[in-house]
Design brief:
Strand order of the largest sheet: 4-3-5-6-7-8-9-10
Radius of gyration: 18 Å
Helix content: 25-40%
Strand content: 25-35%
CATH superfamily of the largest domain: Fructose-1,6-Bisphosphatase, subunit A, domain 1
Bound molecules: 1,6-di-O-phosphono-alpha-D-fructofuranose
Number of strands: 15
Oligomer: single chain
Distance between the termini: 34 Å
Largest sheet: 8 strands, mixed
Length: 286
């Protein structure tokens, strides 16, 4: 696993350089879910592929930008699912964006098969958060010589102050709207950039809050992809002492996608906000 983490640091440095220097225009392609691909999406995907495809530990890689699974080494122990550049729609206006990685047991592409997860934040600083199942996530930041040094462990308080509500409001259900309004009425502050990596990173480092991307009238199954986005962040939130559930109150880590590009409604937060969400949605534990 350490070899994979070392590779992620190299990927972070390379994609960071590409974001700063490469053309921000569109390529001529769409990705597997029909989104227009930026040239930078393609470059980032190629960089990740280049770094991960020479690891004997890796059986296959699955990219948000690729339709199919890409085999690497048949006897590898892990399958790595990744979103090489999350936040394509905000990179042109110079907001922070990220990369997300889920490291799954080969043969078990599901929440229960997720062994470790990581994300990189390309912001004013380059940062990395790594979580191995059963251990508290670690937070790293790059320094003057590009080397990553450990900052601290990441842990959530019982309750936070931030509210990051995703999706188009006019398509929210009345239940969801009433719930989001009730958090603001309690004093929660709006923090939403349109990039799940910086939005969730902010909640994690500030000790709590809620990020939601519900099923909506226009996207009943939500927007965020299970293998590349929702499950990796679920592992990171649970490892930090928080919760991550879907709209029926199921732990995201109990879910299994039918297809590699499946999406799910998802909610990430500290205990207080997730418990409040469950009661607003009429979800009973057990
Ligand atoms: P893009 O990569 O197309 O910018 O999408 C980013 C994202 O998948 C995720 O990072 C955001 O949280 C979410 O979409 C924002 O979606 P809305 O704009 O619908 O709230």
């Amino acid at each position: 696993m350490l070899t994979i983490f070392e590779k992620l640091k190299n990927i972070a440095l390379d994609i960071d350089k590409a974001i700063k220097n490469e053309d921000l225009g569109y390529s001529e392609h769409q990705n597997a879910t029909g989104d227009e691909q930026l040239k930078l999406d393609v470059v980032s995907d190629t960089l990740v592929e280049h770094h991960l495809s020479d690891l004997s530990l890796v059986q296959a890689i699955i990219s948000e930008e690729k339709e199919e699974i890409m085999p690497v080494n048949e006897s590898g122990k892990y399958v790595i699912c990744y979103d090489p550049l999350d936040g394509s729609s905000i990179v042109d206006v110079n907001l922070s964006v990220g990369s997300i990685f889920g490291i799954y047991e080969a043969g078990n592409l599901s929440g229960s098969g997720l062994r470790a997860a990581a994300y990189i934040v390309y912001g004013p600083r380059l940062e990395l958060v790594l979580a191995v199942r059963g251990r508290v996530p670690r937070h790293y930041r790059s320094g003057a010589r590009g080397l990553f040094s450990a900052r601290s462990s990441v842990s959530l308080n019982e309750k936070g102050k931030l509210n990051a509500p995703g999706g188009t409001q006019k398509y929210w259900s009345p239940t969801h709207k009433a719930f989001i309004d009730s958090l603001f009425a309690e004093g929660y502050r709006l923090r939403y950039s349109g990039g799940m990596v910086p939005d969730l990173h902010q909640i994690l480092l500030k000790g709590g809050g809620l990020f939601s991307y519900p099923g909506t009238q226009d996207k009943p199954k939500g927007k965020l992809r299970m293998l590349f986005e929702a499950l990796p962040f679920a592992l990171i939130f649970e490892s930090a002492g928080g919760q991550a559930i879907d709209q029926e109150g199921r732990r995201l880590l109990d879910l299994t996608p039918e297809h590699i590009h499946d999406t799910t409604p998802c909610f990430f937060g500290s205990d207080y906000e997730i418990d409040k969400l469950k009661s607003a949605y009429g979800i009973h534990d057990g």
